[in-house]
Amino acid sequence: MNSSDASLGRTSNAAMPVAINRCAWAGTSPEEHHYHDTVWGVPQHDDNTLFQYLTLEGAQAGLSWVTILRKKQGYIDAFANFDPKKVANFSGDDVEKLLNNSNIVRHRGKIESTISNARAVLDVQKSEGSFSEWLWSYVDEIPVQHNFVSTGELPSETERSRTLAKALKRRGFRFVGPTTAYAFMQASGMVNDHIQRCFRHTEVTALGSNPP
């Protein structure tokens, strides 16, 4: 091997990608990786962000999650950065405009539910102090830490998510069945469902052990 071959060999070895263990659902797209690595399972306590998560989980029904992730910024722009006070005042004309917005899912029921859900968020804030405090009371303010070995063990719904879904519906929320409620709990860190071998499992567990 000549010197240039040796150099190429060293460069090739240095460039070898390092395998990262992620939950299998994270797929292969950069959007899924970013969401998995930075958002999913991280305890979230901001009311507007929780309203966003609930909206996106409801919007996903019948669609792939990566489709929703690719439209996330479109949703943020279309729904006033998920400020419930602003969204609650959207009119019928706003609905018609949103139905022509290709940056979101153009489904009348989902759009209208986002507006009515914003009003429900305001009602919860008025009676409970904050949307976050009310939601987190359903896990006793502490993230549920699971230790699943494989993604196949993850439930699609649980008794807690069924209870939360019923409570949300009583408050006037729509597109919030038990499966959507559980996905929301996973996203917002109310539940840590990163599997044991996933590099985020330990990190997210630590975050849940140090509440704000």
Give structural notes.
With 212 residues, the chain is mostly helical. The protein has helices at 3-14, 30-38, 47-59, 65-70, 72-78, 84-87, 92-98, 108-128, 131-136, 159-170, 178-187, 199-208; strands at 144-145, 191-192. Helix 3 runs antiparallel to helix 8 and helix 3 crosses helix 11 (178-187). The model is unreliable at 1-12 (pLDDT under 50). Strands 1-2 form a two-stranded parallel sheet. It has twelve helices and two strands, in the order αααααααααβααβα.
Q: In order across it, which strands form the biggest sheet?
A: 1-2
* Class per helix and strand makeup: mainly alpha
The gross shape turns out to be globular
Q: Level of helix content?
A: 55-70%
* CA-based gyration radius: 20 Å
Q: What gap, in angstroms, lies between the N and C termini?
A: 58 Å
The major β-sheet equals: 2 strands, parallel
- What's the average pLDDT? 91
Oligomer: single chain
Weakly predicted, low-confidence segments: 1-12
* Proportion of residues in extended strands: under 5%
Q: Enumerate how many helices there are, as a single number.
A: 12
The helix/strand order is: HHHHHHHHHEHHEH
**Extended strand count:** 2
Relevant terms:
212 residues; mainly alpha; two-stranded parallel sheet; 12 helices; globular; disordered N terminus
Structure, briefly:
The chain has helices at residues 3-14, 30-38, 47-59, 65-70, 72-78, 84-87, 92-98, 108-128, 131-136, 159-170, 178-187, 199-208; strands at residues 144-145, 191-192. It is mainly alpha-helical and 212 residues long.
